[in-house]
Amino acid sequence: MRRQLSTAAIVIAIAATATACNSDGVDAKPDNNASAAPSQAPKDPAPAPDKGGDKGDKGGDLAVGGTAKLKAKNGAQISVTLKNWTDPAKSNNKYMQPKAGKRWVAAQFEIVNTGQALYDDSPANGVKVIDDQGQNFTHSIGETTAGPNMPASVKLKAGEKALGYVVVSVPENGKPKSVTFTPDSGYAQETGQWTVAK
To answer: Are 86 and 34 contained in the same domain?
Structure first.
């Protein structure tokens, strides 16, 4: 008799414990919706594709038409766009031609002062063409049929812009890979780089 009462007491205790566990809102049965919940949770939006926009020297080359946002030493802020790349570039003066074994290429840059400080520079001094061998070539004196040259010096107030070609002499059989622009005649900390390889 006592054994039967003990067994009954144990059964009642187990039932009470199970009821108590379920009374806090936790369902002992697996919830069919629980496994579906993660798949129904909103996913993080995929990052927007990089369109080669404003980069400066923070990695990755820009394409022709891309814009680099750069800072000059005096705090001037500029947006520099490689508007056009001409290879080869023909001289518009029969008396000024590339030297033997050389050819001209020309990069058309647009520089816009997007800050408040005056941008005062000699832009052509900050242009370099880099070939597939890693060699660097700087600007040459010459004018091309592609269009007007970049002014030798510019002073741009806020909102003003300058546009023009910079001529560079490279080996006749050379393969230019990229062109760079660095403010302050090439001495600023930031550089824009554009891919021009064919």
So the answer is: no
